[in-house]
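Fold it.
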Amino acid sequence: MDIVSFVSQKGGVGKSSLARLLAVHAARKGLKVMIADFDLEQLSCVEWSAQRMRNGIEPEMDVRPFKSLKKLRKLESDFDLVVVDTRGLADQLTEEISEESDWVFLPTGTSMDDLRPTLALARKLGRTPRLSNKIQLILSRIGRSGKQLSDARIIINEAGFSALSEIWPHRDGFLSEFDAGRAGSEAANPHLRAAAELLEAEMFSQSIQPPKKPA
């Protein structure tokens, strides 16, 4: 069983959207998936799942709220993959969740207002030996400026980290899809769907280990 967490120092960087994207992709691959929503003030993933169920969208997603790791540990063995959506705040619980994770994604925008706290959090988490090679940034909610994107990649690389090659674009069309309970790869617009599919495939291949072959 794998635990993949989406962690950020601040809200508004697409953390919940990316968690849903990976979870739906993994479910379509045949994995038994649960989204653990630790953001009890927002419960974005829980509300999204309820809307998804109301609209009869498949696959049905198992999304549950959590306030501590204790309850999550009891359920881990029931799933192939647990996708954790943390709070937009790097507190002690967020650090504990990260340490329990097999992989940690840190979404960030291209501005220094986003990059500075994200890289600081990456350095902090990277001090944990188990996580030192399991932290990956995702350039998220990206506009149409190629220079801003290029500059952000340079800053990330100079800080000693890397970002996925695919990005999560900032497009208004995704919002109505989320409101209906869909993930980005389920968007009606083919351009939005294509962008989401590229990113979900890279997230999956980067973070989910292939099943071990029987001896």
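DSSP finds eight helices and seven strands in the chain.
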